[in-house]
Each structure stands twice: as structure tokens, then as C-alpha cells.
User: Which sequence fits this backbone?
């Protein structure tokens, strides 16, 4: 582990972790997808000291009737947020079960350029059969097949990010040269279901490689920078973290906090009248802010960070900002990102060398 200070991430998709969270939101449903709200919520998270925000996504609408549903693509929201923030990391969820890895890698590399090195990528899967129909693709059936697509997708993306060496862009007006073609490389990937030649159409990201987050049971640990681990209690989280095999580990936590107007239990009960809060095997905290601070301090002995999933963003995020993060900071348990720092640097991850440049240097040395 990197030390006692925790990196905090927060999921900002929709109105919160509960499917009926919109019923307690501080805005009308038609305001959910407006740029103003997206920017406001991101600004609250950045000012509070969160290391990272994540934005869930999928080709199918989230939730279902009778709740209002709708979502703008995570990469598009991330690009908008990147232009209106300066320190916080931004990691959209992008499944590669059906999406073309070449296009995904280009989008994410562009996001890293827009954010000046603050981008990440949360790798997930499209599990519903309707997703295949939406993409016009044959279904990828079974956990093993979906894991294969995720593995191949991350492998391709990482190779494409290296297909431009750092100094491939020349921009020489005197010689009318924009690129050094010798510093562009073909990735020549052939998997079980597709092949990619390359090189990329976007220069190498500022971080070299974006920070890749995912669940190690779905994506091979050697392809991840940050493992996201579940567990219904601290012992289960600690066990999962110990076996993750990745440079950094974040625990997944669902939170419902006491507010000035209602206790956490009352708020959950109010929403449960409309829809159940599905148990996904994650650690869940329902109660006062100081108890959450104690829980996070305990988790800090086992993980490098946590990703919080607030019950209702408009109610829980202010409490997190006002009571939880300041208390952690006061106890020197909060790792805050610094201006001008890349997400990799914030997480204590080295900027990786370009694989093609390294191979060329070794060849020259011979």
C-alpha cells in the first residue's frame, strides 16, 4: 500500500446509487442531463478534495419504468468536466464488450489531452442481451467470453497509446514536417474475435498510459493500475485487496448519511417504498458521518483508496464535503490531488516508458 492517506473517488452518474434517488434530488428530472448540473456536481467533488470522479455508462438506458431514465455518454461528460475542472481525476466507464477498442483508445487518449493528464478508464462489461442488439453485434455470451473481450480491449488500447512515441510530433514549420514517421508504430494485434493494425490517430497521452481501473475477476490484474474490490465487511474487503495483485486497490462502498433533515435510515426507507436498493455484494454504510470517517480510517490499513457511491448525490455529497473529507484531512488520512499533477502522479504511479521506444533503444544498444 502507498501509505495511510486514502484517495477518495466518487461515482457521479445519475442522481445517486439508489434507483429512485431522483425522487429526493434537489432538481427537477429534466435538469439531470443539463451541462450546468454536470459541472456543478463535479465542482463540488473537486473542491471537497476527491482524487477522482467516475461516470457510469452503458449502451442501454439506466434503470427502467416508472423512473425517469436517460444518460449522456460518459466520455462526452468526462470531456466537458475536464474543461471545467483543474485538479480532480476523471474516469469514464467504457465497456469494450462490443465497442471498437481502436475508437475507445482514441477517445480516452483525447480525454487525457483535454484534461492535461487527469484521465482514467473504468473497464466494465455489457451483460444485457439488448446491448448486442443496440450495437448490431452478435451477443457475447458467458462471463468467460466477456472477460476475453475486456482483456483484448485493454491490451489493444494500451498498445495503441504506445504506438506514438513521445517525440513523434515534430511541428517543424521550416521543414514542413508534422510527424516523425519512424516514431509511429503498428501494434499488429490479433485476438480471438478481431485484429487491429494501428497506429493510433491520436498522439500518445500526456500520462503515457491512462490509469486503468477495473475488477480483477473481470480484467487480468496485469492490465490494471487500480483494482476495484467488493466485500460486505472490512474483513472481506481486506481479503480481496490482499489478493488483487495490482499496483493500487480501491474498495467499493455504498453510502447513505444522516442529513440535517433526516437520518440515513429514514432516507433509505423513504426510497425503498418505490424501489429496492439492490445488494451488489459491496460494503454499505448507512448512518452518521463520523461513523463513516471511522470506517474509512479502518479501511486505510488495507486499501489505497475507496470509491464512494452516494445514495442521493444532492443529499450525501454535501455531507461528504462538509463533514467526512474535512475530518479525514484533519487526521491526515486524506490524499488530496495537487494542481498541475497528473492522475498517475497523484496515485503514486510512475509514467511508463513507451514499449516501442524501449525496444528500439535495446536494439540500438546491441
Assistant:
Amino acid at each position: 500500500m502507498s501509505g495511510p492517506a486514502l484517495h477518495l473517488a466518487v461515482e457521479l452518474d445519475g442522481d445517486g446509487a439508489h434507483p429512485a434517488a431522483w425522487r429526493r434530488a434537489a432538481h427537477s428530472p429534466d435538469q439531470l442531463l443539463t451541462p450546468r448540473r454536470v459541472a456543478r456536481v463535479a465542482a463540488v467533488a473537486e473542491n471537497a478534495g476527491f482524487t477522482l470522479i467516475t461516470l457510469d455508462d452503458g449502451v442501454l438506458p439506466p434503470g427502467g419504468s416508472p423512473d425517469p431514465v436517460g444518460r449522456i455518454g460518459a466520455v462526452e461528460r468526462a470531456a466537458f468536466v475536464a474543461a471545467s475542472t483543474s485538479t480532480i481525476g476523471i474516469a469514464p466507464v467504457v465497456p469494450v464488450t462490443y465497442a471498437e477498442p481502436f475508437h475507445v483508445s482514441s477517445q480516452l487518449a483525447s480525454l487525457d489531452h483535454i484534461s492535461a493528464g487527469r484521465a482514467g478508464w473504468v473497464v466494465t462489461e455489457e451483460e444485457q442481451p439488448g446491448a448486442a442488439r443496440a450495437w448490431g453485434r452478435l451477443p457475447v455470451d458467458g462471463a468467460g467470453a466477456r472477460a476475453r473481450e475486456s482483456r483484448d480491449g485493454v491490451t489493444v488500447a494500451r498498445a495503441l497509446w504506445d504506438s506514438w512515441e513521445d517525440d513523434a510530433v515534430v511541428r517543424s514549420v521550416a521543414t514542413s514536417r508534422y510527424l516523425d514517421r519512424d516514431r509511429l508504430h503498428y501494434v499488429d494485434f490479433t485476438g480471438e474475435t478481431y485484429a487491429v493494425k494501428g497506429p493510433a490517430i491520436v498522439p500518445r497521452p500526456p500520462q503515457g498510459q491512462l490509469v486503468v481501473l477495473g475488477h480483477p475477476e473481470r480484467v487480468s490484474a496485469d492490465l490494471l493500475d487500480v483494482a476495484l474490490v467488493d466485500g460486505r465487511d472490512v474483513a472481506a474487503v481486506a481479503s480481496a485487496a490482499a489478493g488483487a495483485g495490482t499496483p493500487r486497490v480501491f474498495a467499493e462502498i455504498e453510502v447513505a448519511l444522516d442529513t440535517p433533515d433526516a437520518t440515513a435510515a429514514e432516507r433509505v426507507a423513504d426510497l425503498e417504498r418505490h424501489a429496492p436498493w439492490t445488494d451488489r455484494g459491496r460494503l454499505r454504510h448507512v448512518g452518521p458521518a463520523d461513523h463513516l470517517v471511522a470506517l474509512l480510517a479502518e479501511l486505510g490499513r488495507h486499501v489505497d483508496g475507496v470509491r464512494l457511491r452516494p445514495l442521493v448525490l444532492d443529499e450525501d455529497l454535501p455531507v461528504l464535503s462538509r463533514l467526512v473529507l474535512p475530518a479525514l484531512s484533519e487526521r491526515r488520512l486524506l490524499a488530496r490531488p495537487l494542481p498541475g499533477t497528473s492522475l498517475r502522479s497523484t496515485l503514486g504511479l510512475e509514467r511508463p516508458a513507451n514499449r516501442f521506444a524501449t525496444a528500439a533503444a535495446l536494439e540500438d544498444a546491441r
